[in-house]
């Protein structure tokens, strides 16, 4: 079983992720991970932190001479901000009891953030005890883990691409989707939009929101090409692939909605127009579905067609013009929420994280389906299974 665990805080010394369950022999280069982390920093509307956040990577274990050992892989992502301002953050985030905080506690929780509920749940009187872990900075560790999952999926012929289809009120009108070779083109867009017309309108929307000190949400579409037939299962509720994907995507910070295929649209259609007709492709000797209403998943299992999932992100809860009403937890007086450094939007970056979470789910289910302690064994099992499907 593939699983991962992250640790660390936004302004702490480092983030750490441990990935367990990867087969031995998977080629891994530090640049593979660094490249994915750099993609996470992309996007028009990001804050100044993205300009100096360097994601200093160290492979602590599980990889030798460029290949996984089959043991857990441990990755450290050093915090360049800690190095940049050690006098502040080394003391502020010190694990030592004798080191008192260097700044006043944050007592004006932000509506829409984890601040207040986290303080109530864990008995804190300083929102920093919550926000440092609740910060989206944690997704850097997830992206590092997902980079490994992508490397495994690549060995099985699976490619994952995301693109922004909505930012604020601007929705792309294009029906063209990026293919498995279009990731560089998507990343070249300042908002990671595949539609040039939609891209320019999205940039203008960000500029307008920035001028007002406001924030914008949006929606990304994640596409997985080459997914094998039969990942997931119908036999238990917690083995359904769409359920696993929904949970994984919903776990991303500020994501409030997930759909598989045309999930919300087909809810209003009659059954005769809501499903993907099945055909037999004699040339490829396989069953085909030429539409994506079900998003490549039926009965909790992958169909072998294009997997389509969408994630909707709410506007960020920290605004550059603090206007959200709140209550000071010490005085109980009405006030406005405090301001941490923030972005106008993080939707383009969220798409990269959504790729990550999709990759981790698909890689985990592929290992569950095909098994194997080494990469060669996993690939061999995958090829053997694919061969059994060719005759229908």
Radius of gyration: 22 Å
Low-confidence stretches are none
CATH superfamily: Chorismate synthase AroC
Series of secondary-structure elements, N-terminal to C-terminal = EEHHEEEEHHHHHEEHHEHEHEEEEEEEHH
Give the secondary structure arrangement, pairings included.
Blueprint lengths: L2 E5 L6 E7 L9 H11 L8 H4 L3 E6 L1 E2 L2 E2 L4 E6 L1 H5 L1 H7 L22 H8 L5 H7 L4 H17 L3 E9 L2 E2 L11 H6 L7 H16 L6 E8 L15 H10 L4 E6 L2 H4 L11 E4 L4 E4 L7 E2 L2 E2 L4 E7 L11 E3 L6 E3 L10 H24 L4 H15 L3
Antiparallel strand pairs: 1-2, 2-6, 3-6, 4-5, 7-8, 7-9, 9-15, 10-15, 11-12, 13-14, 16-17
Characterization of this structure:
- The chain has 392 residues and is of the alpha+beta class.
- The chain has one domain (3-389): Chorismate synthase AroC (Chorismate synthase, AroC fold), CATH 3.60.150.
- It is 34% helix and 20% strand.
- The chain contains 13 helices and 17 strands.
- It has helices at 30-40, 49-52, 80-84, 86-92, 115-122, 128-134, 139-155, 183-188, 196-211, 241-250, 263-266, 347-370, 375-389; strands at residues 3-7, 14-20, 56-61, 63-64, 67-68, 73-78, 159-167, 170-171, 218-225, 255-260, 278-281, 286-289, 297-298, 301-302, 307-313, 325-327, 334-336.
- The strands form six sheets. The chain has a five-stranded antiparallel β-sheet. A four-stranded antiparallel β-sheet has the order 1-2-6-3, covered by helices on one side.
- Helix 1 (30-40) crosses helix 7 (139-155) and helix 10 runs antiparallel to helix 12 (347-370).
- The two termini are 29 Å apart.
- The mean pLDDT is 93.
């Amino acid at each position: 079983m593939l699983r991962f665990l992250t640790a660390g805080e936004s302004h702490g010394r480092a983030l750490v992720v441990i990935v367990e369950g990867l087969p031995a022999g998977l080629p891994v280069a530090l640049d593979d991970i660094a490249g994915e982390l750099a993609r996470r920093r992309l996007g028009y509307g990001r804050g100044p932190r993205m300009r100096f956040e360097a994601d200093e990577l160290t492979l602590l274990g599980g990889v030798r001479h460029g290949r996984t050992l089959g043991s857990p892989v441990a990755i450290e992502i050093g915090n360049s901000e800690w190095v940049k301002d050690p006098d502040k953050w080394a003391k502020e985030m010190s694990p030592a009891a004798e080191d008192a905080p260097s700044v006043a506690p944050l007592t004006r929780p932000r509506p829409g953030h984890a601040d207040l509920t986290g303080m109530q749940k864990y008995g804190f009187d300083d929102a920093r005890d919550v926000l440092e872990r609740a910060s989206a900075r944690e997704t850097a560790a997830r992206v590092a883990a997902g980079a490994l999952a992508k490397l495994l999926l690549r060995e099985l012929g699976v490619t994952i691409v995301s693109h922004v289809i909505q930012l604020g009120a601007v929705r792309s009108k294009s029906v063209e989707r990026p293919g498995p070779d279009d990731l560089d083109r998507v990343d070249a867009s300042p908002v990671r939009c595949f539609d040039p017309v939609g891209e320019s309108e999205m940039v203008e929307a960000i500029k307008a929101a920035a001028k007002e000190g406001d924030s914008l949400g949006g929606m990304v579409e994640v596409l997985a090409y080459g997914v094998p037939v039969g990942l997931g299962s119908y036999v238990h509720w917690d083995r359904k692939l769409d359920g696993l994907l929904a949970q994984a995507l919903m776990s991303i910070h500020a994501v409030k909605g997930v759909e598989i295929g045309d999930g919300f649209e087909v809810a209003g259609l009659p059954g005769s127009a809501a499903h993907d007709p099945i055909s037999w492709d004699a040339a490829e000797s396989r069953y085909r579905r030429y539409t994506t209403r079900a998003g490549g998943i039926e009965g909790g299992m992958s169909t072998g067609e294009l997997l389509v999932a969408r994630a909707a992100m709410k506007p960020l809860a920290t605004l550059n013009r603090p206007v959200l009403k709140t209550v000071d937890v010490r005085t109980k007086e009405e006030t406005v929420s405090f301001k941490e450094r923030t972005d106008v939007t993080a939707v383009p970056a969220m798409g990269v994280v959504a790729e990550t979470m999709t990759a981790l789910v698909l890689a985990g289910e592929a290992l569950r389906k095909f098994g194997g302690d080494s990469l060669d064994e996993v690939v061999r099992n995958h090829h053997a299974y694919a061969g059994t499907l060719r005759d229908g």
